[in-house]
Amino acid sequence: RLKELQRRWTEIGFVPFNRKEEITNRYRNALNKEFDKLKIADEDKSLLKYKTKLDNLKANPKASKKLRNEREKFYAKIKQLENDIVLWENNIGFFAKSSNADTMIKEVEEKIENAKKMIKTLEEKVKMIDQSGLDD
Predict the structure, then answer these.
(1) What is the pLDDT of residues 62-93, one digit of tens each?
(2) Does 68 fall in a domain?
(3) Is residue 43 part of a domain?
(4) Is residue 16 part of a domain?
(5) For residues 55 and 132, what is the distance between their CA atoms, to the nearest angstrom?
(6) CA–CA gap between residue 133 and residue 136 (Å, rounded)
(7) pLDDT level of residue 15 (50, 70, 90 thresholds)
(8) HSE on the CB side for 93, CA within 13 Å?
(9) pLDDT-based confidence at 14, cuts 50/70/90?
(10) What is the pTM of this model?
(11) Domain membership of residue 69 as a residue range
């Protein structure tokens, strides 16, 4: 079903400018509905959606520039998350001295775990860009 939606999207041809946003939104909504039907983790859904985006970009003559910019944003976000993790891990040491330390430590550990998952997803997306051949 997803491949069929993608195939129909790439075959759509010329779209009047005043209808472009409406049609793009309908396509994204249809894709999102199909992805939501899949019983997979959110991180995997994110990667599948990104792969679909890369496949659709192949028809765009400005894909190379867009992907270079996106790749740079991903790396900046990865660096930011890595810095946040270091800060949060450092802060855990200070929480041990407070009265409601367990709750705060648990919240920070959850933030760290979510940040690590996000880093992994972003690194996968960078890898997908590198393997797409579109960022030359």
Answers:
(1) 888 888 899 999 999 999 999 999 999 988 88
(2) yes
(3) no
(4) no
(5) 8
(6) 6
(7) confident
(8) 4
(9) confident
(10) 0.68
(11) 62-136
Tokens, residue 48 = 């599948």
Whether residue 56 is contained in a domain is answered as no
Residue 11, SS3 per DSSP: coil
14/71: higher pLDDT: 71
Please check the confidence at residue 109 and state whether its pLDDT lies above 90: yes
Rounded distance, CA 2 to CA 107, Å? 37
Q: Report the C-alpha gap between 3 and 31 in whole angstroms.
A: 10
Amino acid identity for residue 113 in this structure: E
Cα Rg of the chain (Å, integer): 20
**Number of separate domains in the chain:** 1
55, exposed or middle or buried, with CB in 10 Å at 0-12, 13-18, 19+?
middle
123 vs 115: CA distance, rounded Å: 12
